[in-house]
Write a structure and sequence with these properties.
By secondary structure, this protein is an all-alpha fold. The chain is about 85% helix and about 0% strand.
């Protein structure tokens, strides 16, 4: 059962298909498992709420909803590193002789224009990873949920 069905969302997933290497998926899978383990208490509560409020018993769907609902990234260190790199690239494209104030303004411009979109794209990448790697993610999550 596809989680996302709109044409735009399917196009994004098709784009991810061409962007992600097996190594990228493996790295994200490890981050996903770590993320869910660190948040297992909140995940258990979320699962109970989804079951109670919506009769939702599909773990895969619930994992995706958990990620969307919390709007968190699996690996914050990697996320911030990548976002900083993108922002820095933008600043450098504005000119090499920026004074500190101009640099600050350029960074703020990038953040205002791109930070929210970058976050959403990252969350969608995580959903994509869950779709692609669920067979390897699910056993660890099920085991942790039973403990």
């Amino acid at each position: 059962m596809p989680f996302l069905k709109t044409k735009k969302q399917l196009d994004i997933f098709e784009q991810f298909e061409s962007e992600f290497s097996k190594k990228d998926l493996e790295e994200m899978k490890a981050s996903a498992i770590d993320f869910f383990m660190k948040n297992i208490g909140a995940l258990k509560q979320f699962i109970k709420k989804m079951q109670k409020d919506f009769g939702q018993n599909d773990l895969i769907f619930t994992l995706k909803m958990f990620v969307l609902n919390h709007n968190k990234v699996f690996n914050m260190v990697e996320y911030m590193k990548n976002q900083s790199g993108l922002a820095e690239g933008y600043v450098q494209s504005q000119g090499k002789d920026l004074n500190p104030e101009e640099r600050r303004v350029a960074l703020n411009q990038w953040i205002e224009k791109n930070a929210e979109v970058y976050r959403k794209r990252t969350v969608f990448k995580q959903i994509y990873c869950i779709d692609k790697m669920i067979a390897e993610i699910e056993p660890s999550i099920k085991k942790a949920l039973k403990e």
